[in-house]
Design brief:
about 70% helix, mainly alpha, 5 helices
């Protein structure tokens, strides 16, 4: 049963992605999610390396511990930039933007 649902989903996705506008939207969203995930993973690794619990990190930046747990367990789809900056600052890091080489840009 699960296999049939998966096949149905994949066929529907393939049909949807055959539209150039839908594919462009999908790719933009996919890149956004990948970048957000990379930032969160980096911050979480810094936290772990520093030996700081999620609860302690939350206390240090004046946030609710549950919001920090959600952030690091991928339950926050689009974290706010001020939160990301606060965490990075507390962990002795900074948020930076890096331009992609021309060949890697869309």
């Amino acid at each position: 049963m699960a296999r049939a649902a998966s096949d149905y989903y994949e066929r529907g996705k393939a049909a949807w992605l055959s539209d150039p506008e839908a594919r462009a939207h999908y790719e933009r969203e996919r890149r956004e999610i990948e970048q957000i995930d990379a930032v969160i993973r980096s911050l979480d690794q810094l936290r772990v390396d520093a030996g700081i619990s999620k609860t302690e990190l939350a206390r240090r930046i004046g946030r609710n511990p549950s919001s920090i747990r959600r952030l690091f367990t991928a339950q926050t789809a689009r974290p706010e930039l001020p939160l990301i900056v606060s965490i990075a600052d507390e962990l002795g890091a900074r948020v930076a933007i890096t331009a992609l080489p021309r060949a890697a840009q869309r």
